[in-house]
Amino acid sequence: MLSRKKAMLAAHLVDAYADRLFAARAEPAGDILEFRAGLASAHQALATIFDLVAGRVELVTEAVEVPLADYGKLGVEDFMVSLYNGHSVQRLRIVGLDGSRQDVHEVLAAAILGLVRGAPPSTGSAGPPPPQAGEDS
Prior knowledge:
By secondary structure, this protein is α+β, with helices and mostly antiparallel strands.
């Protein structure tokens, strides 16, 4: 499980990579805010991450109940915690503007997938490839 600090770092990196996609486009002229709005409309997870970084939504730690059928999927640490906490584990969740809650891991994974797939169709650019491990950004 990511700590709150690491989850926010990952969110900021996703946010910054969107700016890199804008800078790497073939047609450099344009409005970065319009580009980011296009990404957000094409990928809901990116919209959520942009909102998280901008402070419009909140990242909270919550106890989430684990159904007994899902115990086999838990790591040892989470299993032990759930035994002593009424079948619940701590999870980082994003509280949306409408009060909805999403697991930060799932949102980050979907947002990264949205970035890898590239810019919205209106730009005609797939964007640069993601940086490889050990590569300077």
